[in-house]
Structures are given as C-alpha cells and as structure tokens.
Amino acid sequence: MKYEPPALAGDEELVMDCHSHGRHPAYFSSTDNQDDRHDVKMALVIGNCDRSNPSVAARLCAKGLFEETKRVPQAWYQAVWAAEAK
C-alpha cells in the first residue's frame, strides 16, 4: 500500500502521524522509516486491532533520526481503548 501524506496549507505543519497495522503488532517498518526520514514529527502505530488490548509503538522523528519510546504513556493506551469501546 502506498501512503500519501495529507495536503497541508502553507501555514500548517504535520506534528503527528498515526496509522494502524491492523491485526499485526505495532512496530516501525522499513517503509515507515523511509516515509519518516525527512520529517520532524511524532509517529504512532497501533497494532493488534482485533484484540481488546491493542499494541502501540511511538517515536520522535527528526530528519532521519528516530527516538523510539521504551514505553508508551498510559494515557495513550487509554485513548485507544476508549475509542475501541465506542
């Protein structure tokens, strides 16, 4: 699948990129690395979407440098769970 970032107006900046790996675990793939290599943003992947406890991966992207979090904040997990419960 080919990802196309959203069109932004001249005064807009992308600060968060979130996508899903569906039923597969959350992780940053080589495709994600290619897509993120020129950006400065937070990236979030949600996986295991078929389960009651989805997996989440997050990182800071800074022009080819990636700082993946060791632990995603609990509030982020709660937001994913809350959206699932609706």
Question: What's the structural blueprint in terms of helices and strands?
Answer:
Blueprint: E1 16-20, H1 30-36, E2 40-47, E3 55-62, E4 65-68, H2 74-85
Parallel strand pairs: 1-2
Antiparallel strand pairs: 2-3, 3-4
Question: What amount of the residues lies in strands?
Answer: 25-35%
**Structure class:** alpha+beta
Total strands: the figure is 4
The oligomeric state of the chains shown is single chain
N to C succession of SSEs: EHEEEH
What do the pLDDT scores average to? 85
How far apart are the termini?
Answer: 28 Å
CA-based shape: globular
Output the radius of gyration.
13 Å
Low-confidence stretches: none
Q: Order of strands side by side in the largest beta sheet?
A: 1-2-3-4
> Can you give the helix content as a percent range?
10-25%
- In total, the number of domains comes to 1
Biggest β-sheet strands, sense, barrel:
4 strands, mixed
H/I helix tally:
2
